[in-house]
Amino acid sequence: xxxxxxxxxxxxxxxxxxxxxxxxxxxxxxxxxxxxxxxxxxxxxxxxxxxxxxxxxxxxxxxxxxxxxxxxxxxxxxxxxxxxxxxxxxxxxxxxxxxxxxxxxxxxxxxxxxxxxxxxxxxxxxxxxxxxxxxxxxxxxxxxxxxxxxxxxxxxxxxxxxxxxxxxxxxxxxxxxxxxxxxxxxxxxxxxxxxxxxxxxxxxxxxxxxxxxxxxxxxxxxxxxxxxxxxxxxxxxxxxxxxxxxxxxxxxxxxxxxxxxxxxxxxxxxxxxxxxxxxxxxxxxxxxxxxxxxxxxxxxxxxxxxxxxxxxxxxxxxxxxxxxxxxxxxxxxxxxxxxxx
Length: 341
Hints:
341 residues; mainly alpha; 73% helix; 0% strand
């Protein structure tokens, strides 16, 4: 019975792993390696065989890992990509990536994965392979990967797995690579802000609190803050803009909202009311007073509205909004106009 066949059997798989875990025996490892090498792609996808491959990767030599990579990349350009997309295969690939040590090995891997960067990024299994490359390989090694991601950032950002990969790309890039990537994301800001996954990418950029990135993003969103505030996902982005930008920038956002003729609808809106609450929490001076006046002027319609009441109760319990003196005044006014149910 051959080693490759034995590796696909549950008991045989365990037996082979125990043999490799025992006192290092180069002759035994060499024998298993030669038997497994020809079938490595198939075994990486096998329910039991993938564990044998993972253990073999741990104990074999640097030269043997290179041979394994050559076997996975030379015969079929897409073979490593297909394995990475598989639930079992991705574990074997990640194990192999963990043990690469030479420039030649990294080059083989990146060359093989490059045609599938977008597909891998948008796949729950492939995502982990891409993230491993970003976290453990140099920016230079990942340069082509980052270039492909930048060119396809919108589609990747709007995917559940892709939005996580894109955030990792921003974290693990620098210089021109990061500038290109951030510029590509910023150019699609309006579209991404209202997407269920894309909005997290924009919030991540804002969370970096890098002045130039924030300024460019706010400029791209300018003129759309009202419509974004009425969107389930866009409202989260507007709140993040208010919280993570400077006082001057947040004041510009609040001014845009206040000068919109439909501003009062935000007080009653399922998502917009949260934007108003956040605006009240960060605003100062005339902008804060204007928001308070807005609330007071619309109290008659807010009284019977669930979301309108949320705004009032937010004021009631947040002492820091207007200071103790203002808080006492507003507490009395709210108490006279609302009844807690």
